[in-house]
Write a structure and sequence with these properties.
Bulb-type_lectin_dom, 13 helices, globular, lectin, Agglutinin, subunit A, signal, 5 domains, alpha+beta, five-stranded antiparallel sheet, membrane, Receptor-like serine/threonine-protein kinase
């Protein structure tokens, strides 16, 4: 008893002294009358070491955020903010006034934010090396500190008391309050909760610590551990284990906008280096704290993990991804949490015109929208269930499985994977037949102009060697990945690849019977792995006659095997047995972008936006985030595949060349495909990652216009898409590029922005082209797009 009392007294003394010891750290004090003004560049007060800064950051193209951030990391990661829901314009000011008030005001003097001070005798402000910003009295008593008022982040030496919470941001670039929070409840339970958005009250919890009545404080110590204690300091629950000393690593733990609580570390000796590109690797995410599948969150009131009419799918990194079912698209592609809308006119409830024959049901296996069923029938067949939904104008989706039939209507909520896939439940989505919008072809009223460029002429001459990469294609439903599918095969350490024998792959492909496509270096076959799940794969068989085959094979295995990105086709395994060299890839159920974009049934505008952005993100990953930089060298619609959710997945790295970390360029023989090849291939110029940027620019124009980059059937001034698109941009006639495409016409600001990005990408001078990272930032709106010059200005000058 005496020992427990001693622990209690020691702990209370530590708590009482915490404000004084925190403020006593080395700091550069800001005296009364000090102020900061929002300007075109970051303005701030730095901590003594320079690790942290307090001041103004401009958020994308919007206003300014009063914030605290890591100042020595190129990403300038924000850890606290004052006005996330009310960004201020340039010229706004934060001031420690002569009378001891601390106020953020706009240029007109209107008060935007001020802290709730304890007492009024503020004498100075200080940004500390711990990341804590304090307002203190003359005797160093804390009147206010950011550590007591966290937003979405907790830092080492910071604690959370009962009632404290970390509220997730609305989205990655929106610092207003979002839909999730990490909270130490007054009763002592630590919880992950949804918020009754747009209110800030808790809605429902999806994880609890089970410490009701005992939990007292969350501690993030200097060893990188986060834990929950009781009132005497005893550890009730370890939330994270040690992630390393704060002397060697910057650390933060964040309640992420998608509902996951994650701890990150960043090596201090790696700041401002390119090999990690300013990114924070995830140090920890506990399976006990993070739900096994965030997508399984179901709310009695609310949309679930994603917005209404959408569904959630877990990524490889166990972070949720929000998707739209077939026939639906995002209300706002830049804000997927707003949910999805129907891309067709709903079924009429007029009994005289039931429209039953104008609708069909599209199957989506292992997806469900639980709760909020408005009808349930038992002991019925699938055909009966289908007819019941088609005959019901209220029915948007019907779930069928084991004789059960559940009807659902808009808005759909709690979209998630089926929790028990073994029962064979399937979702049947009702959409209007032939509802996919058709892209228009260019008209004949464009200005007549005779031209040709060296790039097009030489590219056409190369047409005889075009690579026929119709890979991993057509018409087969992609089965959902099961973690145990390939466990029968040995794993290569450090690569997460499976080693197959030639006989296993010969059997999987039925003797290499069904060819999916072929190119200069390989032929691709459809295969089925002989496991209980009969997992579909694409098996790429390298040609024995290729003299550089070993180099090509080794490059793919070593590079692709270590790539992991949602916009890349995943390499699953390989065979290297004698003369036999084969690669085993995921099978993409919806084929290539070429067949989808240039066929009879074309994606709508918002699908094309997502495909363009996904492709850009995949290339940015290859160029800047891989341990060994990868140049693809053959970006074209045939090498962009679409998975079961129509997500863009870059395929075929067989033409890629690897760059060592200390290299910035390489020279090699001409690779690539007619119309997509950058001009430096044809000159004595080094080939860099900018060749992929050029190819992406052509691809982006094809996605915007829904036509091929070169069409000999068109009249002369329309044959070359890049020339025609620039003419339309220069003459302010961009509507010609998307004529009869109603959705794109209603989104002309984005059309203009994307055309400008494409023109920047296809500049003849490689140095003028942006990096793919900047392309992504421009497409997302984080970087403003300036007016580009004519794409052929460089070639005209040589």
């Amino acid at each position: 008893m005496a020992l427990a009392l001693s622990y209690l007294l020691s702990f209370l003394l530590l708590v009482l002294l915490l404000p004084y010891s925190t403020i006593a750290q080395t700091s550069k004090n800001q005296s009364l009358g000090s102020s900061l003004t929002a300007q075109n560049k970051d303005t701030y007060w730095a901590s003594p070491s320079g690790d942290f800064a307090f001041g103004f950051q401009q958020i994308r193209k919007g206003g300014y955020l009063l914030a605290i951030w890591f100042n020595k990391i190129s990403e300038k990661t924000i850890v606290w903010s004052a006005n996330g829901d009310n960004l201020v314009p340039i010229g706004s000011k934060v001031e420690l006034t002569k009378d001891g008030q601390f106020v953020l005001s706009d240029p007109t003097g209107k008060e935007i934010w001020k802290p709730g001070l304890v007492g009024t005798e503020v004498a100075y402000a200080a940004m500390l090396d711990s990341g804590n910003f304090v307002l203190a009295s003359q005797d160093s008593r804390s009147s206010w500190q950011s550590f007591d008022n966290p937003t979405d982040t907790i830092l080492p030496t910071q604690t959370m008391k009962k009632g404290s919470k970390l509220v997730a941001h609305y989205s990655e670039g929106n610092f207003s309050n979002g839909r999730f929070q990490f909270r130490l409840q007054m009763g002592g339970n630590l919880s992950l909760e949804t918020i009754a958005f747009p209110l800030d009250s808790p809605n429902s919890d999806y994880w609890l610590s089970g410490t009701e009545g005992n939990g007292f404080q969350v501690v993030f110590n200097q060893s990188g551990s986060i834990y929950l204690t009781d009132i005497n300091g005893s550890i009730l629950q370890n939330i994270t284990s040690s992630a390393g000393s704060t002397q060697d690593f910057y650390q933060r733990a964040v309640m992420e906008y998608d509902g996951v609580f994650i701890q990150y570390v960043y090596p201090k000796n790696s700041t401002n280096t390119s090999n990690i590109a300013g990114r924070w690797p995830m140090a920890w995410s506990s399976s006990t704290l993070m739900p096994p599948n965030v997508c399984l969150l179901a709310e009695d009131m609310g949309s679930g993990a994603c917005g209404f009419n959408s569904y959630c799918k877990l990524r490889d990194n166990r972070r949720p991804e929000c998707l739209c079912p077939r026939g639906y698209s995002f209300i706002d592609p830049d804000d997927v949490m707003k949910g999805c809308k129907q891309d067709f006119q709903p079924q009429s409830c007029d009994e005289a015109n039931p429209e039953t024959d104008q609708f069909e049901l599209i199957e989506m296996p292992n997806v469900n929208w639980p709760k909020f069923d408005y009808a349930h029938f038992q002991g019925q067949t699938e055909d009966w269930c289908r007819k019941a939904c088609l005959d019901d104008c209220f029915c948007s989706v019907v779930i069928f499985g084991s004789g059960h039939c559940w009807k659902k209507k808009n808005p759909l909520s709690n979209g998630m994977p089926e929790q028990n896939p073994s029962i064979g439940t399937k979702a049947l989505i009702k959409i209007r037949k032939n509802s996919t919008l058709q892209c228009s072809r260019p008209g004949a009223d464009s200005k007549n102009k005779v031209r040709s460029t060296l790039i097009i002429i030489v590219s056409v001459l190369l047409s005889s060697s075009v690579f026929l990469n119709l890979l991993f294609l057509f018409g087969f439903r992609f089965k959902f990945w099961k973690p145990n599918v390939l466990q029968l095969y040995p794993v290569i350490p450090g690569m997460n690849l499976r080693s197959f024998t030639y006989e296993e792959l010969r059997e999987a492909t039925s003797g290499f019977k069904e060819e999916l496509g072929s190119g200069a270096f390989a032929t691709v076959y459809k295969g089925v792995l002989q496991s209980e799940d009969r997992y579909l794969v694409a098996v790429k068989r390298l040609n024995n006659r290729v003299r550089e085959g070993d180099l090509e094979f080794n490059a793919e295995v070593s590079a692709i095997g270590r790539t992991n990105h949602r916009n890349l086709v995943q390499l699953l395994g390989f065979c290297n047995e004698g003369q036999h060299r084969l690669l085993v890839y995921e099978f993409m159920s919806n084929g290539s972008l070429a067949s989808f974009l240039f066929g009879d049934s074309l994606p709508n505008w918002y699908q094309r936006i997502q495909i363009a952005l996904g492709t850009a993100r995949g290339l940015s990953y290859l160029h800047e985030e891989c341990s060994s930089q990868i140049i693809h060298c053959d970006i074209k619609p045939q090498n962009i595949l679409l998975d079961d959710s129509f997500t863009a997945r870059i395929s075929d790295f067989g033409l890629a060349k690897l760059l060592k970390l200390d290299q910035t360029r390489t020279t090699t023989g001409i690779r690539g495909t007619k119309g997509y090849v950058a001009p430096e291939w044809f000159r004595s110029m080094p080939v860099t990652i900018k060749v992929d940027v050029y190819s992406f620019g052509i691809l982006l124009l094809e996605l915007i216009c829904c036509r091929k980059n070169f069409d000999a059937k068109e009249q002369e001034d329309l044959m070359i898409l890049a020339d025609w698109a620039y003419d339309c941009f220069k003459d302010m006639k961009l509507e010609l590029l998307v004529a009869n495409d109603e959705e794109a016409i209603h989104d002309m600001k984005r059309v203009e922005k994307y055309v400008m990005i494409a023109i920047w990408c296809i500049q003849e001078d490689p140095s003028l082209r942006p990096t793919m990272k900047k392309v992504v930032q421009m497409m997302e709106g984080a970087v403003e797009v300036s007016v580009p010059p004519g794409p052929s200005s460089f070639i005209s000058s040589i």
